[in-house]
Amino acid sequence: MRYWFRAVIRNSFFQVGFGLLIVVIVGGIVLQSFETGEITEGETPFWWAIVTMTTVGYGDFVPKSPQGRVFAVFVMFAGISLVSLLTASISSIFVAKKIREGKGLEKVDIKSHIVFCGWNRNGEQILDSIQYLAGDEKPDIVLINDLNEDDINSLKNKFRDLKIHYVAGDFTNERILERASLRSADTVVIIPNQTDSAVTSPDEKTIFATLTIKSIDPKIRVIAYLNERENLKHIRRANVDEVVLSDDFGAFMVASHVVNPGVPQTLNSLVNNRSKNRFLRVNIPHEFVGKSYDDLFTWFRDKKHWVLIGVFSKDESLGIGEILSADSSALDAFIERKLKEGGISLQEESKVRTVINPSGEYVIQANERAIVIP
Asked: Is the full-model pTM beyond 0.85?
């Protein structure tokens, strides 16, 4: 309580405001004593003091005695000075807040946004894809990294269709994540942070960040980008929702160029965010729930001229990685080995269940959505 009182007393905004209040009260009382017999009913000297100090000057009351007029001059100069200081204090608060926001030191108060943790050479490509795929929508994106202010301003100018916010600091720190309004975020994207020279393995920081985020709110959707496949089982145990491996797609494309020419070119068109024939995720009309895959396929082909590739749904069931402990114990190794022998791998775990080109009799479920090629 004592600390709070001292902080209030030392606040410049409070000091100036209190000074204005004192001048109004003293000015009203003194003027009333000087203008005895001159103040008629309905004329309030306190109102006069406020009008005079703010240089409004309605003229509804004017001091008539010499001492009253001399004192009025004092009130005028005191009022102009204090009002100017009050305006300057208010302006400095907003300017300081704007400067702190530019440096990433202020809390971002938004909802349903994307938190983008880390930064590397792929960061701009990801933002460009999000901007293009979002269409007319302008999603809010909070960047958490160690870039300087000039680099952040450059990104804001380059991606004007994205509402980019910035929080400076370590994205494994709970305080920094809270500053990015993590609890109200829709999705968190974590990419290997190559701006931090103190980290020997970026994947370790990605795994630790996933653990921290899930400990704050397990329901937040986390998408992590890994460099090394050997770290996949560790991040699965951190309860990540989706994992992207840097070597998977590149290795497949190189091999396909060698043994299956034409396949990589087609795939590149399907995953290119600016291609007219890229994969799309669309809603399934309600009337097709409970009907066959063939019926839905025919409808997309005849009505939309689209090719239906498959369907997907979010799997809310408990994942295999969640039942394993956080350490690499002998029991965990035994369970993992037995699962692999049974054809189940931790690397195949996903919280989004996809069904690609099922049989024509496959029944469409209520929680499924379609993957199409326009």
From this structure: no
